[in-house]
C-alpha cells in the first residue's frame, strides 16, 4: 500500500541529509507507457523505474518524486513504498499543456540513491474545450480519384516564441511540414483506431522550424485506413468520403502571451504530386510536381463535421522507419525486369536512388514475398497491386520512396530505372517503434532462425495495430491471431501501451450484448459477432498484459468488456453450458484443412468453443479477484467449474478420450485443466503422445491448438516428444518453413510446397505471426524462464533439458530489470546460470532436483543432472 506524504512545495525533505548510496541507482524512469516526451492523455501519470544494485542488503522502503514545471517551480512527495512499477502520481493532478521534468530517487533505511536522470513530462489536451481548431477539407479536389491534397496556411511572426506545440490529427493519414521541413518522424499518422469512437492526435515540438517573418504550415493528406480500400476490392471509404485535417499550433512567447493558429475556413488547399495512394494498391507520384503548398493553384477549404470528444492522446509508440536493410542480391527475371532480393521478408518501403533519369520517364516498383520461376509470386496478394510508380522530374539524382502506403515483401521488381547498382536500392523497415525486451538462443541454428522469424513477423505485423498479415488485401486486426500470440508479443517487445490502446478499441467496438467483432477496428460489421478463440481476445489479451506488466489499470479498464463477453457466451451456451451452436472458426487452418476450406479442421469446433468458454470464465474470475470484485470472482469461478463439468460429461470418456481425438482437443483439455478425473487426464496425455508419435512428430494443429501443443506434451510427462516435434523439419512443422528459406512465420504450414511452388489456397501469407506463438514455449520451457507473478516480480526458472538441444539462453528485460536464464550440457551435467535483478524472486528448478531453490538478487550458478 502506497502511503504518500503531501507535497511540500519544493522544500527539501529532512531525509536529504542522509547518506547517498553509491551501491544503488535509479534507471529507466518512464512516464506511463509512452515514449519519452510524448504528450500524455492523463494529468496523473503513473511512473516506473528500475532499481539497479548488487547490494543484497538494500531494502527499498520509500521513494521521492520531484516534478519541476517549465517555470522552475518544483513539487515533491515522498511515498512509503518499495514499489517501482506503474506507481500512482503522488502530486496534484496536472492540467492540459502542463509540462516539465520529473525525477525520482529511492531510499533504504538511512540511505538514498542519487536522483535519476530527469525525464520530460508533458500533458496533452485533456478536455474537448482545449480544442479551438476545426476539421477542414478541400472543396473541389481531394476526392478518391484526385491527387493527395495539401492543406496549409501562412502566418507572420514578429518575434520567435519560447515554446511551440503542434497538435494534429486527420480523417485519413497526414504528414505535416513547417516552412518546408517535415514535422516529426512518424509515418501514417494518426494510425488506425475505431474512428467513430477514438481518434488519436499527435503533439510535436516545432520550435526549431519557426522563423521571424513569413511562415507556412501545411499537411499532406492521404487516404490511409479512413478512405482507402479495406478487406476486399471496391470497399473504400469505410469511414467517410472526405479527407480532413485538424491542426492547432500553439505558441508561447517570452512575455507570457500566447497565440493559436488553428485550422478553420481561412486555410487553403492545393494538389500535390501524389496522384494516387492506397495502402493495398500502392502509390503513384509525379516528381515534377513539388509536394509543397501552391497558393496560385489553391482553393478555400470547408469546415466539416468532426467530434472532438473522440480525440485521445497516443498511448503506444509511433510507426517509424526502424531499420534500413541493404540489397542482398540482384538478378534479372525471365521477363527481363530487375529483381532485388533483400534477404529478409519485411514490411515497409523500397527506397531507390535514380541517376540520370529524364523528365517524364516512369519508374515502377512492385513487391512480393516470394518468387515463382524467377518472377514475383503475385497470386497470394489477391487484389492488392502493391505497386509504386514514379514520374521522374529529370534531376540528376532522385531518391524515391512512397509516403502513404506500405508493403510486405522480400523481393522487388524494378522497371524503368536504368543502371541500378546494388547500393542504389534499400528496404526501409516500417513498424510501431516498440522496444525489444526478449531474446533467445540455442544450440540449434534452425531453432534460432525460427525465433528470429517470429521476431520479424511481429515487427511487420505490429504496425499501429496487430494485423494478421501485411501484404495482401486484408491487413486487419484479427482478434484470433492476437489472442494466441499476446503472451509471446509481451515477451519479445514492450507492447504495454500498444495492446492497451488496441483493447480500448475492442471495448469501443464491442456490441451492447457483449459480442466481440472478429477484427478490431471492426470493418467487417458483422451483425452478431461471437466466435470462440477470436472474440475471446476480450479476456485473454488483458490477462496476458496484466501478467507481463502488472498493469492493474488495463485490467480495471477492460473488466466490463471481459464480463460482457463471458455473459454473452453464457447466453449462447444455455443451461447445459455447452456452446454448440452458431458460426465458429474452430481450429483455423490446421494441416488437414483443404486449401479453400480453412475452417474444416480435425477438431470439432463446438468442443473448441466450449473449451474456450471455460477458459474465459476462469480468466474473468481471476481478474475479478485481483480487482477486489469478490462476488464476481465467486460467480464466474463457479461458472468455469460448471463448464468444465459439462465438458467432461459431453466430450470426455472415462478412459480419457476426448471427442475429435486429435492433437488440438487434447492440448486444450490438458493445458486448461478441462479433464476432472486424474486417471482420465493421464490417459488423455498418453493418447496425445500416441497421436504425435503416429504423426511422425509432425504438427496437426491450427491457430488455436498450436500455441498449446508443446506445453500439453510436457504436461503429459513427455518433454522429449515436445522437443522432437519442435525439431521436425518435414511438413507440417515449424522448421519445415525454415528449411525452405522462410524469414518470417507463414500462415499455412505449407504456404510453399516442397517443390517451391505456392500453396494453391487464396489464404497463403508468408508473414503471419499466429504460429509464432511457439516462441513463448521456447522462452518458458527451453530457455526455462517464465513469469510467475504480474510484472515478472516472481519468476519460475525450469528448463526442460532432454538432450536434443545442448544449450539455451533466454533473457527478458522485465519491468524490474533484466532477467536471464542459460544452461548447457556438460558430460551429463546441466550447468545452469540465473541472473535476477533487484525486487525479483526466482524459483529455480535445477534439472534433476525434486523441489525448487528460491533465490533473489544476483547471478546464481547451479549444477544439475540431465537424467538422460
Automatic annotation (TrEMBL):
<dbReference type="GO" id="GO:0030596">
    <property type="term" value="F:alpha-L-rhamnosidase activity"/>
</dbReference>
<feature type="domain" description="Alpha-L-rhamnosidase six-hairpin glycosidase">
    <location>
        <begin position="435"/>
        <end position="782"/>
    </location>
</feature>
<dbReference type="InterPro" id="IPR012341">
    <property type="entry name" value="6hp_glycosidase-like_sf"/>
</dbReference>
<dbReference type="InterPro" id="IPR016007">
    <property type="entry name" value="Alpha_rhamnosid"/>
</dbReference>
<dbReference type="InterPro" id="IPR008902">
    <property type="entry name" value="Rhamnosid_concanavalin"/>
</dbReference>
<dbReference type="Pfam" id="PF05592">
    <property type="entry name" value="Bac_rhamnosid"/>
</dbReference>
<dbReference type="InterPro" id="IPR013737">
    <property type="entry name" value="Bac_rhamnosid_N"/>
</dbReference>
<dbReference type="InterPro" id="IPR035398">
    <property type="entry name" value="Bac_rhamnosid_C"/>
</dbReference>
<dbReference type="Pfam" id="PF17389">
    <property type="entry name" value="Bac_rhamnosid6H"/>
</dbReference>
<dbReference type="InterPro" id="IPR035396">
    <property type="entry name" value="Bac_rhamnosid6H"/>
</dbReference>
<protein>
    <recommendedName>
        <fullName>alpha-L-rhamnosidase</fullName>
        <ecNumber>3.2.1.40</ecNumber>
    </recommendedName>
</protein>
<keyword id="KW-0378">Hydrolase</keyword>
<keyword id="KW-0326">Glycosidase</keyword>
<feature type="domain" description="Alpha-L-rhamnosidase concanavalin-like">
    <location>
        <begin position="334"/>
        <end position="429"/>
    </location>
</feature>
<dbReference type="InterPro" id="IPR013783">
    <property type="entry name" value="Ig-like_fold"/>
</dbReference>
<dbReference type="Pfam" id="PF25788">
    <property type="entry name" value="Ig_Rha78A_N"/>
</dbReference>
<feature type="domain" description="Alpha-L-rhamnosidase C-terminal">
    <location>
        <begin position="784"/>
        <end position="853"/>
    </location>
</feature>
<feature type="domain" description="Bacterial alpha-L-rhamnosidase N-terminal">
    <location>
        <begin position="162"/>
        <end position="323"/>
    </location>
</feature>
<dbReference type="InterPro" id="IPR008928">
    <property type="entry name" value="6-hairpin_glycosidase_sf"/>
</dbReference>
<dbReference type="Pfam" id="PF17390">
    <property type="entry name" value="Bac_rhamnosid_C"/>
</dbReference>
<dbReference type="Pfam" id="PF08531">
    <property type="entry name" value="Bac_rhamnosid_N"/>
</dbReference>
